[in-house]
Design goal:
Elements: H1 4-16, H2 21-33, H3 35-56, H4 61-78
Helix pairs in contact: 1-3, 2-3, 3-4
The structure holds zinc ion.
Length: 82
C-alpha cells in the first residue's frame, strides 16, 4: 500500500506514465481513497500542463518564476495533515 508521502513523491512519474502497471494500480487505488492526494495530483497535472504550454512558447522571463511559485504553493497546500 502506498503512503501519502510516496504518492506525492511519485506524482510526476505517475502523470508522465513512467510507473509500471502494478504501481499505477496502487496509485489509482490510493487516489480513490485519499482526497488529499487526489487534490495534489490534480494540481500537479495543472502545473505540468502550464510548464508544457510555456515550453512551447518563447519564454518570457517571468514564466519560470510563476511556475515555480505555483508548484511550491500546490505542494504546501497539498501536504498531508496527518
Ligand atoms: Zn494520500
Amino acid at each position: 500500500v502506498l503512503t501519502c508521502r510516496e504518492v506525492t513523491e511519485r506524482a510526476s512519474e505517475y502523470l508522465d506514465g513512467d510507473l509500471p502497471f502494478g504501481r499505477r494500480l496502487a496509485f489509482r487505488l490510493h487516489l480513490m481513497m485519499c482526497r488529499h492526494c487526489r487534490r495534489y495530483v490534480d494540481q500537479l497535472a495543472g502545473t505540468i500542463a502550464l510548464v508544457r504550454a510555456a515550453g512551447r512558447q518563447a519564454t518570457d522571463p517571468g514564466t519560470a518564476d510563476r511556475i515555480v511559485t505555483a508548484l511550491e504553493r500546490s505542494r504546501a497546500e497539498a501536504r498531508p495533515s496527518e
